[in-house]
Specification:
The structure is a homodimer of 460-residue chains. Chain A has two domains: 286 residues, Aminopeptidase; 124 residues, Alpha-Beta Plaits. The first copy, chain A, has an eight-stranded mixed sheet with strand order 1-2-6-3-7-19-8-18. In chain A, strands 10, 12, 14, 15 and 16 form a five-stranded antiparallel sheet that branches. Chain A is globular and about 85 Å long. Chain A is built from 15 helices and 20 strands. With 460 residues, the first copy, chain A, is α+β, with helices and mostly antiparallel strands. In chain A, 35% of the residues lie in helices and 21% in strands. In chain A, helix 5 packs parallel to helix 14. In chain A, strand 4 and strand 5 form a beta hairpin. Chain A starts with a helix and ends with a helix. In chain A, 56% of the residues are buried. The interface between A and B is large, with 97 and 97 residues. Chains A, B: This is Acetylornithine deacetylase/succinyl-diaminopimelate desuccinylase-like protein.
């Protein structure tokens, strides 16, 4: 039996123990956006540190102005060094009533098709994915006493809120983070049978629009027809930000958006990802973005604008005849190519200010953001990882453009001059950020096996 | 001293006791729209019944499928009979943090200009106004042992939620409600020194728009650009319901909207109610309605459309990169002239359905409504009331078009064939429906004196 076979067998034989460790991690309600869960975030960081220490890492919890960062490191059998990045924080769970089980009481369920899944908030995003890597490390250490490559592990607690404090930590910790390649496990497979390497990630800008009109809420009987209504103003702005063709109307917004080469588009078309296959499983059928783009372009190579939340006026039971004096919306832009997050934010705000009518004013939120990231397709690290994945899954991984944003990747890449390698085992129907989040047991198991193979390949 | 002078003197001398009774009424948190306040609504009805009984009325609390109705009656010295209508229910108090005192702990405050006010939810709308009438009744009974006219009193508990159960009660109780004139005290004076009789009330339709898109909330990174966003759809609908000129775009919406005769418009212009005087006190300056209409037309003789509340997606602290699958807005239309509430509702819904794009669906709320009401300017009852008010205030009352809606007036008018007479002592800055609602002590005191005079004049 080769060393690698022994490592893989160790993963297979210890799957139940791996799951127990994952469940303990999932029971921690580390919702980073909610100040009420601050202590839980701290507990999640401590949990990661203790796991790393148990695996032989020199590991510490580092405070930040927000939630702490965990950093661990150990040398390996070769000079190659990887930095693994992940996040212990999770999305909020509301609306809680739409969950079929308690979000922080993980359990194994068997689906009608016989597949087993792990059900919990964070199962796929990102605790389950983090543990695929750590369980691969555990198996290598258990079987051989060492690792094929040197490994540093950086696990943050603010990915779901824009990683606001991580860049400063990275800047201050560069010597400890040095690596040849940055491994990230926070993306998806192509489908349940096919692995994927993500070679492009959209960037992100998030902001809030707060519209104010009168100095108080007004009676709509007395003032209706004469007084500016904050919700009307906000709705008008939102509607004006896109035209009938689905294009975003902010002047200069598309600067830096590259056209995808025709051969790549042709390749994408071959993948058979159309509106039915992509949107059908969530109850939709018609791509809602730019009308002259395929659905695969809309989610991979085109920028997007979404309203994530809106509130204003009376939202309780029954009715209230009020003209609201304030309304607010949370928004995000997804960026591609060379779109600059600061320029996009500034152009957006200038355009909104232009749209504001008399008797209304506007303020904004944080406007934080990160640029898009792309990985060169001819990277030697990519080739090694692709071989490892093909060995595990019996078919070559698909290289996909990705759609989500992982704000810190651009920072790590430019500061460390290390290439990112994004390999994840999520599935499109994992309901991350939604009620009933899940992670396939097969993803968890074969994910750990995949990383065991990748670690060996990268040492070659 | 004439009988009337003795009645007025009794009101003056017993003002403190009148206020104590008002405060006890104001302490009852009878918020009709909130099911959690059901018992408080019941307590408010009981309070009114007990007061009526103490004043010599045969009075009962009548259950309805919603909040109960209170009905009392007693004969007077003349054959003339009036029905006084008011409502014991109040608006919600949120946002509570904007109140400078507890909304259900009434108190007297002295304003910087020396004027005294009663501060509480319901002080002006409508508990304080109801008690101006009951305190006038009390004084007449105390001084003369009887009333100049027969009086029935109908106090409901669902005015703020569209009086949904009152029409059926009125239909079933017509013999008990018989009257020559329906008195209502739920409107405003012209200004602090000038009384007013309201001769027009806009009608009302309220409804809710609920937009649904995907079968769950989606991750905006994975789906952004391809998946329909429920808030986007809702904002687009709201924006499309009015054009750039401020006109409502629903086909057929303006059917039944009369043009105000030029001589009436000229009279209105003489009143000096312009954008500065009307909107300035609430921090606004530019009329937001139809651009070719004066502000006084916008609020008195033109229909209006308002969004009263909106909610969708993530509205908590921080950010959440979600594409919401549901968004909802509460809306009201104010109607004038012969606009039919059912036709307006149906046209509105048909138009919204037309606007709904692919991958979105819409449902609606109750769609309840009431038509506008107008009182003939040559009514003899109006002339008698005007004389009484002129005697009290030292100047003739202004007849105003009104703006708010009192849903039951149209029903009472058509079923009883009795003319409505709307005399109120509210002021434009009373903040009804808003935090820090107040009622001028002078309005309360002179309101009671005004009703004492009106009761006598109506008997002549």
């Amino acid at each position: 039996m080769s060393q690698l076979d022994a490592v893989l067998a160790h993963i297979d034989e210890n799957l139940d123990a791996s799951l127990e460790r994952l469940f303990a991690f999932l029971r921690i309600a580390s919702i980073s956006t909610d100040p009420a869960h601050r202590d839980e975030c701290r507990r999640a960081a401590e949990y990661v540190r203790a796991e790393l220490a148990g695996l032989g890492f020199r590991a510490d919890v580092h405070p930040t102005p927000g939630h702490p960062v965990v950093l661990g490191a150990q040398d390996g059998a070769s000079d190659t060094r990887v930095l693994f990045y992940g996040h212990y924080d999770v999305q909020p769970v509301d609306p809680l009533e739409l969950w079929d089980s308690q979000p922080f009481e993980p359990r194994i369920e068997t689906l009608p098709d016989g597949g087993k899944i792990i059900r919990a908030r964070g199962a796929a995003d990102d605790k389950g994915q983090i543990l695929t890597f750590l369980e691969a490390v555990r198996a290598w250490k258990a079987v051989t006493g060492t690792l094929p490559v040197g490994v540093s592990v950086l696990i943050e607690g603010e990915e779901e809120v824009g990683s606001v404090n991580l860049p400063a930590f990275v800047d201050a910790s560069l010597p400890k983070l040095r690596a040849d390649v940055v491994l990230v496990c926070d993306t998806n497979q192509w489908d349940p049978e096919t692995p994927a390497i993500t070679t492009g990630l959209r960037g992100l800008v998030h902001d809030e629009i707060v519209v104010r009109t009168a100095d108080r809420d007004l009676h709509s009987g007395l003032f209706g027809g004469a007084a500016q209504n904050a919700i009307h103003v906000l709705a008008g702005i939102i509607a004006a930000l896109r035209d009938k063709e689905g294009r975003i109307t902010i002047p200069g917004f598309y600067e830096g958006v590259p056209e995808v080469p025709e051969e790549v588009r042709a390749e994408w078309r071959q993948l058979g990802l159309d509106a039915d296959t992509f949107l059908g499983p969530v109850g939709l059928s018609v791509p809602a973005g730019e009308k002259d783009r395929d659905v695969i372009e809309q989610i991979q190579s085109r920028p997007a604008f979404d309203i994530n939340g809106i509130i204003g006026g009376y939202t309780g039971e029954g009715s209230k005849t009020v003209i609201p004096a304030e309304a607010r919306a949370k928004i995000t832009f997804r960026l591609v190519g060379d779109q600059n997050p600061v320029s996009v934010r500034d152009s957006f705000r200038a355009y909104v200010r232009e749209l504001i009518p008399a008797d209304a004013s506007v303020t904004f939120g944080s406007g934080d953001g990160a640029p898009a990231v792309s990985v060169p397709l001819d990277s030697p690290w990519l080739a090694k990882a692709a071989k490892a994945l093909a060995d595990e899954w019996g078919k070559a991984p698909v290289t996909i453009g990705g759609g989500g944003s992982i704000p810190i990747i651009a920072t790590l890449r430019s500061n460390l001059r290390a290439e990112p390698l994004l390999i994840g085992f999520g599935l499109d129907d994992d309901r991350i950020h939604s009620p009933n989040e899940k992670y396939a047991l097969k993803s968890f198991h074969k994910g750990a096996r995949s990383w065991a193979r990748v670690l060996q390949e990268l040492a070659k």
